[in-house]
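Two quick folds needed for the group meeting slides. Do the first one here.
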Amino acid sequence: MLWSLYLAAFVLAVDRSGSKQQVVIAGAVIFSVVMLGRAAVERVFPPRFDIEASSDSVTLLFRDLDLGYEFRALNPGARDTGGLTSA
């Protein structure tokens, strides 16, 4: 969703700007604002889990230990990674 907002803002900036230099500056400013906003939201509201995918497995890393244990209980066929905070 953030990328669509960035694209819409960039299209509006291109439509309203006169020169190519203004388009580049507007794009850089809009991109910076969107990325800083995303980083701020992730800092204030961190995700409850993270996913690391490789070619042969997927690892879920849980911020809450209880959530990891609940996930493991619901998925008994999952391979044990040996970690306390991942299932």
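Then this one, please, same format:
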Amino acid sequence: MGYRILSRKKSTLYGFDIHDGEEIWSRPINRDYDWNDVMFVNNTTTVLVAVGVHTIDPRDGSGWSYDSKTGKKDYTAAVAGTILGLASGRLTGHYLV
């Protein structure tokens, strides 16, 4: 299981055949906050915590999903950049935001 690196569908999880790399199934599972946890219950059930809780059958991608916020975006760098841009503007007269 995995996501395609260069794809427009960034929230689509794919199942691949390990022998030839062919796609077996695909399923939309959001990964805005990355995977929080993954648990392998048995050979037919994987529990994935990623913007909710999802069960996945690795053979065909079936299972249920409960979407919920399981992370938060970190805007610390953006806030710090804005503060530095405004501070330099006060000192030099040239603002950068």
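Slide caption for protein two: DSSP finds one helix and six strands in the chain.
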